[in-house]
Q: What sequence folds into this?
């Protein structure tokens, strides 16, 4: 359930309003990138944003990948040592779901990743391990992955985050480095296609996979946000 207006302990002096952000933001709760639905401070001078999962977190969550774990919401990672999300392997620096018994951590958006996504032309399923290599980095392990039902497309949750963050750095930071897109990476995999049309179809679906997965990882797996993400990472 999404509330249109909330008060939040991290920003107690102002009301936060549910809004739509077409511009990437850094969540002031989990410190991870976001786009789409967000809770934004009504005072523009504050520039305070929260993912919806961080704005209205669940006190505890469970996850099918960790059936013996009970994850508790914490406003900061426990202890003094660096902690890393078990879903994306990125460092936890803000809000987290932590299992006291096992010591596992999940970013709020990672904890709420949908187990299945129907993208129309492609259906994607979340796995903690896949036997196929990631279409972006070429590695099999590393982190959770979304895999298509046809088993031709695999994308690490970690790689989806990296693609988006790198693309935003290129667009908004003025970096001169070349951004490796999933579509260009997949060009090495289309040699088995029998016709040029099939090859184009393959890369078109790959681009759709990328848009959907990145949108889900950023906390808003909707068709609208997938389109915006597609525009950002293709620039």
A:
């Amino acid at each position: 359930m999404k509330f249109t207006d909330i008060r939040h302990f991290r920003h107690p002096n102002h009301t936060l309003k549910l809004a739509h952000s077409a511009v990437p933001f850094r969540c002031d709760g989990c410190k991870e990138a976001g786009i789409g639905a967000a809770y934004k401070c009504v005072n523009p001078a504050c520039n305070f944003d929260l993912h919806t999962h961080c704005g209205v977190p669940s006190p505890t969550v469970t996850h099918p990948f960790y059936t013996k774990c009970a994850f508790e919401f914490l406003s900061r990672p426990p202890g003094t040592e660096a902690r890393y999300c078990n879903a994306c392997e990125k460092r936890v620096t803000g809000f987290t779901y932590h299992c006291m018994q096992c010591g596992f951590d999940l970013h709020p958006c990672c904890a709420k990743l949908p187990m299945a996504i129907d993208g129309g032309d492609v259906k994607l399923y979340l796995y903690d391990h896949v036997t196929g290599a990631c279409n972006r980095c070429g590695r099999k392990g590393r982190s959770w992955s979304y895999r298509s039902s046809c088993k031709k497309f695999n994308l690490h949750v970690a790689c989806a985050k990296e693609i988006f963050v790198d693309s935003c750095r290129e667009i908004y930071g003025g970096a001169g480095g070349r951004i490796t897109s999933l579509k260009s990476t997949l060009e090495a995999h289309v040699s088995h296609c029998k016709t040029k049309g099939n090859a184009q179809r393959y890369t078109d679906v790959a681009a759709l996979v990328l848009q959907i997965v990145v949108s889900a990882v950023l906390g808003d797996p909707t068709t609208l946000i997938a389109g915006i993400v597609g525009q950002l990472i293709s620039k």
The longest strand covers residues 11-26. The two ends are 34 Å apart (CA to CA). The chain has a mean pLDDT of 81.
